[in-house]
Amino acid sequence: MKSNDLVLEKDWKLFRKRLPEWQKRHMQSLLDEYAAIIAGDGDAAAKFWELEERLKKDVRHVGVQAEMSRSRMVLNLMCLLHEKAIKMSDLDGFSDEVKAAMPPSFTVD
Question: Which residues touch 19 (CB under 8 Å, ≥6 apart)?
């Protein structure tokens, strides 16, 4: 079964509605981590380069920017779970088919 086959209209609408809030929450978490890097002990140059590396990596998170297509919705949800931008409980309201498509390692909050 292709991931697009799982995506009901109600799931797609719910995903589009919730994604911006999930992304804001994830970005706030990242900003908190960056602030800890900046406030931490150590050489200013080392902190700067550590932060630069993190930014290059984190900007590719689905929790920061997602390719919005119905066919990628299930993959986006998996990425959000992997990035810890969301928990399985955030999928309340989605169809059982979408929840069942999540890998078993994500099924426990």
Answer: 66, 68, 76
Predicted local confidence at residue 105, as pLDDT: 78
Q: Using CA atoms in the order 77, 79, 84, 90, what is the torsion angle rounded to 10 degrees?
A: 0
Q: In 10 A of CB 28, how many CB atoms? A: 10
Residue with tokens 């800890």: 36
Mean pLDDT by 10 residues, the chain (109 residues): 68 97 96 96 95 96 93 95 95 95 74
The candidate with the shortest Cα–Cα distance to 30, out of 66, 72, 62, is: 62
Name the residue ranges covered by the structural domains of the chain. 3-102
Q: How far apart are CA 69 and CA 12, in angstroms?
A: 9
